[in-house]
Write a structure and sequence with these properties.
It is a single chain. The protein is α/β, with parallel strands linked by helices and 206 residues long. The chain is 29% helix and 16% strand. A five-stranded mixed β-sheet has the order 3-2-1-9-10, covered by helices on one side. Strands 4-5-6-8-7 form a five-stranded mixed β-sheet, with no helix packed on it. Strand 4 and strand 5 form a beta hairpin. The protein is globular. 41% of the residues are buried.
């Protein structure tokens, strides 16, 4: 039984498919996706389709990323300007050029994404965390938006190791920070999409 985390995909569907082909998910595996499935890359719709498909092969956990937060706001009627400038244009294009083409099944998928995930040994968040605050009380600004360049967190009081994304690491390398690990390796910007077995530390990149 493996627990595998996958970093920020950002519409890079071919990389996700290659990564899953290398991982070969087993029914006993848990795959934790760290959010930011959409925007910037060429095929956000394809990424969401693959995510929904892999959930039929093993246990999956889908975290909410800041790009999903932006899209949800737009779907509720908020201004789309900031989202479109942050990669949302590519997402709309992948849905045929119309926001209205984002079918209910995709909106339902986004609505079920969670803010964090926790096991006996690990914590999974999208962006950042406060060391002295329980997960259920973590501010959304930290969970979804705060980069490691804004603030490097201290060890979480639970003693658990934290796996996160959101802050692209240099040269496609995993960020090993001792008490936390960052696996956003900049796939959309010419880097890699990374998956990490959080127990064995075996990793795959595409």
């Amino acid at each position: 039984m493996r627990t595998i985390a996958i970093g920020d995909i950002h519409g890079c569907c071919k990389a996700l498919e290659a990564l899953l082909a290398a991982i070969k998910p087993r029914p006993t595996d848990t795959i934790v996706f760290l959010g930011d499935y959409i925007d910037r890359g060429p095929d956000s719709r394809g990424v969401l389709d693959v995510c929904m498909q892999v959930s039929q092969r093993c246990h999956t956990v889908f975290l909410l990323g800041n790009h999903e937060v932006m899209l949800q706001g737009v779907l509720r009627g908020l201004s789309a300007e900031h989202w479109l400038q942050s990669g949302g244009k590519q997402t709309v294009t992948s849905f045929g050029g119309r926001l209205e083409s984002i079918a209910p099944k995709y909106q339902n998928f986004l609505s079920k994404c969670v803010h964090y995930y926790e096991t006996a040994t690990h914590i999974f968040v999208h962006a950042n965390f406060h060391a002295d605050i329980p997960l259920r009380r973590q501010p959304e600004e930290s969970l979804f938006w705060e980069h490691l360049s804004d603030r490097v967190p201290d060890p979480h009081f639970s003693g658990k190791h934290v796996i996160l994304g959101h802050t692209p690491q240099q040269n496609g390398n995993i960020g090993w920070y001792g008490h936390f690990t960052c696996i956003d390796t900049g796939c959309f910007a010419g880097g890699f999409l990374t998956a990490l077995d959080v127990d064995s530390l075996e990793y795959w990149q595409a």
